[in-house]
Amino acid sequence: MEPVIIAEGDLEPRSIGSYTMRIYKGRSAKFPTDEFITGVVRPRNGTIDAVRFADVDGDNRPDLIVVMRSAGSGGYLTAEAFRYHDRSLELIGSVAGLYKTTDVIQVLREKLKASTGVKGH
Question: Which range of residues forms the domain containing residue 17?
Answer without folding.
Answer: 4-116
